[in-house]
Amino acid sequence: MISSMQKTILLLHLLCLTTILGQEFSITGRIIDENKQGIEGTEIVLLNEGTISNSAITNKDGNFLIKNKPGVYSLRFYFVGTVIYQTDFNLDKDIDLGTLESFDNSTQLREVEVTSKKRIIENQVDRTVFNVENSIRSTGTDGFELLKATPGIFVSGNQIGIVGKSSVSVMIDDKIVNLSGNELINYLRGITSESIKNIEVITTPPAKYDAQGNSGLINIKLKKTPEDSWAVNVRNYYEQNSYPIYLGGISFAFNKNKLSLFTDYIRQTGHDKYWENLNNDFETERWEGSTNRKDTRDINRLAFSLDYKISEKASIGTKYIGLLDNPDTADRNATAIRDNSSNDITSTFFTNGFNKNESSNHTLNVYYVQKLDTLGKQISVDFDYFNYTEDQNRTFTTREFSAENTQIGSSFIANNTSLQEILNYSGKIDVDLPTKWATYGFGGKISFVENKSNIAFFNLSSGIPVLDINQTNDFDYAENTQSAYINFKKSLSEKWQTQIGFRYENTIVEGTTTSLDVTQNQENNFSYNRLFPTMYLTYTPNENHNFSANYSKRIGRPIFWHLNPFKVYINSFTYAEGNPFLQPSFTDNYEINYNFKENLSFKVYYSNTIDGSMQLPIIETNNDETILRYFRDNYVDRYQFGGTITYYFDKIPWWESSNTINGYNNVTTFIKDVPTEARNGFQYHFFTYNTFNLNKSKSLKAEVNYEFHSARRDYYFSATQYNKLDLGLRYSLKEKGLNFILMASDVFRSYRADFTSVVNNVGQLNNSYYDDRKILLGVTYKFGNKKLNASQRETGNEEIKDRLK
Q1: CB 514 within 8 A of CB 521
Q2: Same domain, 189 and 304
C-alpha cells in the first residue's frame, strides 16, 4: 500500500509537472513619469482579445515583472484608474521593454483612454463587476450614492441590499465593513466616488467568506494610493423629518513613505418618529391600539487605521472602530376595547413608557500580510477583538379608563432592566496561490463568543419595588466555531471557467438560564458541524453573451438579541421576548444567469431553508387575563423560486438608469404546531434609479429614484402594496472640492403597508411607519491631495457583528 508520505510526494510531483508543461515567458521593464522618476503602484494588465490574462503592480522604482503563456497581447498601465501607457506585442520569448515613459501629451492620453475604456459591466465567474468610471455618478458623489447606479443593488431608506437576497454585507477592498443601517450609510458617505475603482456584486459568496447568513456581498474596490499625499474630508448633513437630525463628520488620510494613516469621526444627534396601529379581533371584543414613539439619535463614532509597509512584500497594520450610542425611546400607547355586539368602547388602556438605553461597540483588528511573489501569492493573518455592551432600563405605566373617562382601579407601574455584553475573539489565516494552471486558496478561522444577559422585572405599583422572580434571570451563552476552507478556480478554455470551494464549520454551543425560581433553570448544550460547498460554472461564447450557474449552502445563526429572553412591554398585556434556545437554519441556493452585452441580465433562482426562525404573535389566557405575546422560534421550512431582470441604460450621455424587477413565489411550511396557517403566493418588486446631467459641465445633476412592492402573502400574513419616490439635486465644484446635495425621500409618504393575519382564531391588522418622508441637505468639502485614498482594512469578526442587527 502507498503510505501517506508517498501520496504527498506524488501529489507534489503532479503539481510540479502541470507547471512545467505550461510554458510561459516573462515581460520586464520600468515605467517612469515626466520627471524620469519610477511610478510606484502602477497596475499592469495583460489582455488577450479583451480578456485579462494576468496583472501585476510596479515596485517603488517603477519596475515590473509579469509572466504568461505565448500569444498576442496588449499591455496596459493604469495609475489612479487612468491609462498612462499601452503597447501591443507577440509574446514568443522573454521580452524586456526597457524604460517606458508615461504619456504626458493630453491629446495622446485622451485617445488611449477612449480605445482602452473598460466595459462598464464585466461578468466574472463568481461576481459581476460595475466599472464606475463611466457612470454619471462617478464624480462629485460618494460611495453610498454610487451604489444606486450599480445594477442589481437596491438602496431603500437606511437599507442596502442585493435584489433577491435576504441580507447583504458590504466590503471595502475584500474586507467586511462591520456596520449596518445608518452607520454603514454614514461610513460610505465618507468615501468619495472619485476614489472608487469598481463595485463587485457577489450573489454567491465564495468559500473564503463565512457561511453565516443567506446573504450576498457588495465589494467596493478603491483606486491605488499614491505616496506623499494627504487629504481632509469634512461632511455636514441636516435632515428634517418629524424632527431635525444633524450629522457632522471629518476624516483625515495621510500616506507617506511606508506609513498610511486614516481617521474618521462622526457625531449624530436628533430624533426619529415611529407610528404603529395594531388591531386584534376577538370573539366578543376588539382591541384598537395605536403607538407613537420618539427615538433619540445620540451617536459618536471613531474609526482609526494604521498601516505600515515593512518591505516590498510584507505589511502590518491595525484598525479600530468605536461606537457610543444612547438611543433612548419615549413612547405612548392607547388601546381601546370595543364591544363587538354594541360597537361601543367599554374601556381604554393608556401606557406611557421610557426606555433609557446606553450601548457601546468596540472593534479591533491587527493583521499581517506576506507577499510571496509579484503574481499574487500571499499569506495574510488576522486577529480580531470585539466587545458590545447594551444597558436597557425601561419604566412604563398603564392606566385603565372607563367609557366615561374615569380611571378603573389603580395604575400598573413596572420597571424592566437588561444588561447584555458580547465578547468575541477570533483569528484567521488566508493563503492565496495563483498559478498559470489554476488559482488556489485555503485557510482557517477560529472564533470564540461569550454573550451574557442579566434581566430583572420590578412591579412598582405599590410604590415599593417588588421583584418578579418569574421574569428575572441570567442568561449565559458561549459559542466556539472552528472553520477551514479550500477554493479552486480555473479557466477550462477561452470560453469556460469554473470555481469550486468547500468550507467546513464546527460549532459548540453552551447556553444556561439561571433564575431565582430554580424550577425555571435551563441548560441547552449542543454542537453541530456542516460542510458548505460553493460551485460556479461560466460560459462566454463571445463578448455579447455570458451564461453562468452557481450553487451554495449557507447557515443562519440566530441574531444575538433574538436569543435574549428580555421582555419588551408595549403595555401591561402586550410584550415581545427572545428565545435563548433558537437553533441555526440552513439554506441551499441555486442560480442560473444570462447576461447580454453590458446592459441586460436575467437570473433564475431557487432556495430552500430548513429550520427557519420567525416571530409569531401568540394569544395566551392566564387567570382570565388575555396576553398578546410575540415569541420567536424555529417554526418554518421555506422555499422560494423566482427570477430577476436587470437593465442598465447609458445610451444617452446625460441620462443613466439602473432598473431591476424581481419576482418570486414563496412556500412556507410550519414544522411546529402553531395556531395559524401559512400564506403562500407570488410577489414582485421594482426598482429604478435615474441620474440626469443638467448642464454641459456636468456639475449639476438630478436624481429620480422609485421603488414598488406588490401585495403579497408570506409566512402567516398578507400585506398590501407600497411604493416610494425619492428626488434629488446635486451640485459639484470639483476644482474646489465642494459638493452640495438636496434629497427628498418618500415624497408621497407611501412607504407603508397593511399587514393582516389570523392567529388563535384572532384576526390582527397592523400598519406602521418609520418616518421615511424627509428632506436632507448636505455639504462636503475635501482638500489636500485630491488623488489620495488611504488603504482601509476591515475586520474578521463580521459574522458576529451581523448578528447584532
Answers
A1: yes
A2: yes
- Asked, for residue 1, whether it belongs to a domain, the answer is no
DSSP-assigned beta bridge partners for residue 612: 636
Burial of 532 (0-12, 13-18, 19+ CB in 10 A): buried
Do 141 and 102 share a domain, yes or no?
no
Percentage of the chain modeled with pLDDT above 90: 48
Length of the chain: 805
Nearest to 123 by CA among 384, 475, 383, 495: 495
Helices (H), 158-283: 181-189
Helix (H, G, I), strand (E, B) or coil at 445: strand
Together in a domain, 476 and 355: yes
Q: How far is CA 714 from CA 69, 183, 312, 663, in A?
A: 54, 30, 55, 13
Question: String of b and e for 680-703 (b: at least 16 CB within 10 Å)?
Answer: beebbbbbbbbbebeeeeebbbeb
Q: Which residue, of 117, 150, 178, is where some domain finishes?
A: 117
Supply 423's cell numbers: 465578547
What is the residue type of 467? L
68 and 199 assigned to the same domain: no
Same domain flag for 314 and 444: yes
Instruction: Provide the pLDDT confidence category of residue 803 given band limits of 50, 70 and 90.
Output: low
Residue 416 lies in a domain: yes
Q: Residue 73 corresponds to which cell in the numbers above? A: 497581447
Reply yes or no on whether the pLDDT at 786 is more than 60: no
Radius of gyration of the chain from its Cα atoms, rounded to whole angstroms: 29
CA torsion 174→179→180→184, rounded to 10°? Answer: -80
CATH number at residue 222: 2.40.170.20
Q: Are residues 107 and 163 in the same domain?
A: no
Q: How confident is the model at residue 316 (pLDDT cuts 50, 70, 90)?
A: very high
Check residue 470 and give its pLDDT. Answer: 81
Counting the structural domains of the chain, the total is 2
pLDDT of residue 21 exceeding 50, the answer is no
Dihedral of CA atoms 84, 43, 698, 146 in degrees, nearest 10, equals 180
Residue whose entry in the numeric block shows the C-alpha cell 445563526: 557
3-state secondary structure at position 62: coil
Confidence class for position 224, pLDDT limits 50, 70, 90: low
The identity of residue 643, as a single letter, is G
Is 14 among the domain residues?
no
What is the per-residue pLDDT for 5? 45
The residue that leads in pLDDT, 802 or 17, is: 802
Is 125 a member of any domain? no
Model confidence at 113, pLDDT cuts 50, 70, 90, reads: very low
State whether 102 and 236 are in the same domain.
no
Supply the range of the domain harboring residue 460: 136-802
Q: Give tens-digit pLDDT for 463-486.
A: 999 998 888 888 898 999 999 999
Residue 746 has pLDDT above 70, yes or no: yes
Q: Which of 85, 117, 149 is the last residue of a domain?
A: 117
Residue 17 pLDDT exceeds 70: no
Do 616 and 691 belong together in one domain? Answer: yes
